[in-house]
Design a protein that fits this description.
- With 178 residues, the chain is mainly alpha-helical.
- It has 2 domains: 85 residues, Orthogonal Bundle (Rna Polymerase Sigma Factor, Chain: A); 69 residues, Arc Repressor Mutant, subunit A (Orthogonal Bundle), CATH 1.10.10.10.
- The protein contains 9 helices and no strands.
- Helix 7 packs across helix 9 and helix 8 crosses helix 9.
- It is globular and about 50 Å long.
């Protein structure tokens, strides 16, 4: 069965099709949520809200304009941002002192990291850093788009990305020294 056929069946409220669509994308959607939250409970809460939106707004999906995975992932990202806006009144920039630069290593840090380890490292970032890092590096948004989404200025977006990278570099340095 094609994705479009599956979506058509979901729109007809066929329970088996809903379950099949959920099972197809549950890991992708949950991993997006985990990148934005330290707490698994928060990630699960946001995923639940995102699922409600995906299934209630599914008629708005246009297969001619894009693929379902991209559309549904954007819904999940937006739900994560809405949750962060509610939970954190503003994304503040923390001062970070003594952040070290990671020198070139013979073995790339990414070569020794699993996706799970990288996700845990991202989860350790402060909420504002984590949101900007995910939106810029992983989701591919520009600093202008991020500034608009988070209601911050472009300079703050750039600064938080830079500080997020430095914190991740420090974590990688520690990991490589172990």
């Amino acid at each position: 069965m094609t994705e479009n056929e599956l979506i058509s069946r979901v729109l007809k409220k066929e329970r088996a099709a809903q379950v099949q669509l959920y099972k197809e994308y549950q890991t992708t959607w949950y991993m997006i949520c985990l990148r934005y939250h330290k707490s698994k409970q928060d990630a699960q809460d946001v995923l639940q809200n995102a699922l409600i939106k995906i299934f209630t707004k599914l008629e708005q999906f246009d297969g001619q304009k894009g693929n379902f995975k991209s559309w549904s992932s954007k819904v999940v990202v937006n739900e994560n941002l809405m949750f962060l806006r509610k939970k954190v009144s503003s994304f503040k920039v923390d001062a970070i002192d003594d952040v070290l630069f990671v020198p070139d290593q013979s073995e790339s840090a990414l070569d020794i990291l699993s996706a799970e380890e990288l996700t845990r490292m991202i989860q350790k970032l402060p909420a504002g850093y984590r949101a900007v890092f995910n939106l810029y590096i992983i989701e591919g948004f520009s600093h202008q788009e991020i500034a608009d989404m988070l209601n911050i200025n472009i300079g703050t977006s750039k600064s938080q990305l830079s500080k997020a990278r430095k914190l991740l570099q420090k974590q990688l340095e520690t990991l490589l020294q172990e």
